[in-house]
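Researcher: We're teaching a course module on how sequence relates to structure. For the next exercise, students receive a sequence and then see the predicted structure as tokens, so they can try to spot secondary structure elements on their own. Here is the exercise chain.
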Amino acid sequence: MKIAIGSDHGGYPLKETIKEYLQNEGFDIKDFGTDSEASCDYPEFAEGVGEAVAAGEYDRGIVICGTGIGISIAANKIPGIRCALVGDCFSAKATRQHNDTNVLALGGRVVGPGLALEIVDIWLGTEFEGARHQNRIDKITSIEKKYCK
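Model: And here is the predicted structure for the students to work with:
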């Protein structure tokens, strides 16, 4: 599986932890930045990861900022992206099963590294259930298409 990952300065330390873990697990990772804890703006990293996932260049994406809120909002502006901010294991599983999310957002100042790695494992290892949930995804896509002209 190919994973795009990106963060701002607030998410940088957690991004580095997740990136190293995923590389050691054999995932193909592309880091869209940032490369330090110097202050920067999260929308550009959300855009890079989101565009790569939406274009099909990467299977999934992970974005991280201080809270995960801003970067998830920015990622969700990209047509085709379904990004969920997750801070617990139940939501990590449900957002894949029910929402077929393709980008995971985390808060680097909210979620510790141990929990973050558990969330990432669950999120990457959970399949979309389809069936009744597909109808809901189709409705989300319809709303997206209505406003993206």
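Model: If you want an answer key for the exercise: DSSP finds six helices and five strands in the chain. Residues 9 and 38 are 6 Å apart (CA to CA).
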